[in-house]
From TrEMBL:
Protein's UniProt name: Branched-chain amino acid transport system ATP-binding protein
Keyword field: ATP-binding, Nucleotide-binding, Transport
InterPro entries according to UniProt: AAA+_ATPase, ABC_AA/LPS_Transport, ABC_transporter-like_ATP-bd, BCA_ABC_TP_C, P-loop_NTPase
Organism listed in the record: Labrys wisconsinensis
ABC transporter domain sequence ranges: 4-240
Length: 245
């Protein structure tokens, strides 16, 4: 059975169908990639799956068989679904370690403080933020470090499924390479990953399955090589069917 099942979900803003009848499922242990031009509904899809800040107008979302589409974002997170945001998001006035502690302690009442501290330190280690950075204020980090911290805070929640919204955006080439390594490291810990990215090479390197959205609808889905060779995908990305030179 799929760990995450999305069944015919839709979300409209007025007359705009931002996500329109989208279905797919993600197996345990997979890295599942989602691509699509700007405005195609990728982030809205993550919003309605996680309930942050809103659920779908229609459709069902199941996490390990449990329907979650009508639950609040915090309840969904407690069930084991964590996410990052397209823009670096952290508690800027708190330290790196305090940010990770919030993730590690979230939704786990009664968890001993020592266990929470260990989970926070381990998550920071996974993303490569060294002990020397633990006392720095989140607001003073570089863009790459902030992305790593947001990722660590989500990893510290020890989710079953982690949704990453454009982790490679605004990064340099070496930083993108480093991100690929750390996403692989997180996946190797048994976390199922759904990855939105505009950079297709990044998705191609990491994903076992690829889905392309366009105007809120699924344009193509399947094995990554087949999906990017699909003429409709080429057209959506390049705007025209061009012959190869
Ligand atoms: N909260 C919102 N209110 C109104 N329109 C929105 C809102 N969020 C997204 N949209 C619109 O929905 C469409 C899809 O946006 P989004 O999901 O952010 O696309 P992507 O992440 O693929 O770039 C866009 O046209 C966007 O302007
Ligand atoms: Mg987006």
């Amino acid at each position: 059975m799929a760990l995450l099942e999305i069944e015919a979900v839709s979300k409209a803003f007025g007359s705009l169908k931002a996500v329109d009848d989208v279905s797919f499922s993600v197996g345990a242990g997979e890295i599942f990639g989602i691509a699509g031009p700007n405005g195609s509904g990728k982030s809205t899809l993550f919003n309605i799956v996680t309930g942050i800040p809103f659920g779908p107008d229609r459709g069902r979302v199941r996490l390990d068989g449990t329907e979650i589409q009508a639950r609040t974002g915090d309840a969904i997170a407690r069930l084991g679904l964590a996410r990052t945001f397209q823009r670096e998001t952290s508690f800027d006035g708190l330290t790196v370690f305090e940010n990770a502690l919030i993730g590690a302690g979230f939704g786990k009442p009664g968890r001993p403080a020592r266990v929470i501290r260990e989970a926070a330190a381990e998550a920071l280690d996974v993303v490569g933020l060294p002990d020397g950075a633990f006392g720095r204020l989140a607001g003073e980090l570089s863009v790459y470090e902030r992305k790593c911290l947001m990722l660590a805070t989500a990893v510290a929640m020890q989710p079953r499924v982690l949704l990453l919204d454009e982790p490679a955006s605004s990064l340099t080439k070496p930083e993108i390479e480093a991100s690929i390594g750390l996403i692989r490291r997180i996946a190797a810990r048994g976390v199922t990953i759904v990855l939105i990215e505009h950079v297709l090479t990044f998705l191609m390197t990491l994903s076992q399955h690829l889905l392309v959205l366009n105007n809120g609808r699924v344009l193509a889905a399947g094995a990554p090589e087949a999906v990017i060779a699909d003429p409709r995908v080429v057209e959506a990305y390049l705007g025209t069917r061009r012959a190869r030179p």
